[in-house]
Amino acid sequence: MGAPLGRRRAGLGLLTVGWLTLVPVLGVRPAGAAEPEGRIIDRVVAVIEEQVLTLSELEFETRVALVQRGGVRAAEAPLDERTLQGALELAINQRLLVASADRLQAFPAERSEVEARLRDFRDRFEDELALLAFLARYDADVDQLSRVLERGVRAERVLDSRIRLRAQVSETEVRRYWQQHSETLGGPYELIRDNLKEKLVRERYGQLAAAEFAQVRAGARVRRVAPFAREVRP
Q1: Cβ burial, residue 38 (10 Å; 0-12/13-18/19+)
Q2: What is the mean pLDDT of residues 110-135?
Q3: DSSP string over the chain
């Protein structure tokens, strides 16, 4: 999230222009019943370094991220195109970072880290039954949830290893910023120093992360298949 993490993969030969119909699933039917029509069970959204990302996977990962960031109620809201686009960019970034780590057999996710993420996720639900109901609603299970969380842990570790040190700010930089914005910041320097430093580190980290993602994508093979999956440009 290198050992393989059980991500669904499919060859490029499966792809055609536009949306794809995957293998139809035919349910068990009573004897003598008419042959049911094949039905679309999933669609391909993108292919990331030969990893197929389906709509159901993207929607589930989006729901997981919404639970992590905004709670259970946020995950129950309808997913609009903008939300899916943002989730797709996150999915691409995570998969490319993890793929780079896999090639080097580096940055495995510690079991304790994944279990901690899983506990935190569980704690956002009223009880275990509510969590299982959430998973069932999206045809997922705890193993699939763990793989999503593990991928996030690994992607964060890879990114952190590349930019964390460069994101640090010096005492001089913090004080200079305070001097330039003291009228709007309010309060003496000593009282707001820690919060101000955290803000500056966070901003620099975000800038470095954006640059890192752009560099990772520059040589990557990413094919966007779904209509809403067009690349978001500033």
Answers
A1: exposed
A2: 95
A3: -----------GGG--SS------------TTPPPPPP-----EEEEETTEEEEHHHHHHHHHHHHHHHH-HHHHHS---HHHHHHHHHHHHHHHHHHHHHHHHT--PPPHHHHHHHHHHHHHTSSSHHHHHHHHHHTT--HHHHHHHHHHHHHHHHHHHHHHTGGG---HHHHHHHHHHHHHHH-S-HHHHHHHHHHHHHHHHHHHHHHHHHHHHHHT--EEE-SGGGSPP--
Half-sphere exposure of residue 197: CA atoms within 13 angstroms, side-chain side: 12
Phi (first) and psi of residue 54, to 5 degrees: -95, 165
CA angle at 102 for the pair 100 and 108, rounded to the nearest 5°:
115
Q: Where are the domains of the chain?
A: 12-24+39-164+217-229
pLDDT at 26: 24
Nearest alpha carbon to residue 63 among 137, 7, 5: 137
Task: Give residue for tokens 């779904």.
Answer: 226
Confidence of residue 122 (pLDDT cuts 50, 70, 90): very high
Q: Could you tell me which of 98, 110, 103, 230 has the C-alpha nearest to residue 151?
A: 98
pLDDT band, very low/low/confident/very high, at 148 (cuts 50, 70, 90): very high
pLDDT at 41 over 80: no
State the architecture of 12-24+39-164+217-229 in CATH terms: Orthogonal Bundle (1.10)
**Residues 6+ positions from 124 with CB-CB distance below 8 Å:** 67, 68, 71, 72
